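User: Can you help me understand a structure? I only have the sequence.
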Amino acid sequence: MPQTRGPIFDDLARLMTDAAGMANGMRREVETVVKTQMERLLSSMDVVTRDEFEAVREMAILAREENDKLTARLAELEAKLAQKQP
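Assistant: Let's start by predicting it. Here is the structure, written out as tokens:
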């Protein structure tokens, strides 16, 4: 039975596998460096986190709802006061 793969092909396959592994490691390292730099940049710019943004957003929604209720209540009280005046 003839041999279809020689030692050169085995070495080449091993080399390609090692190169792919090294490229993957370099990709992860670059991603880590970029992420670290972005976090440093954003923290120096005083950008809020997603959690902080969502907390303030929820407070604004609640404040808007309370404002709408108070506006309706004020209109109701002004209408009652207008009825009592001659």
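Now, to help you interpret it: DSSP finds two helices and no strands in the chain. The chain has two domains: 7-47, 48-86. Let me know which part you'd like to focus on.
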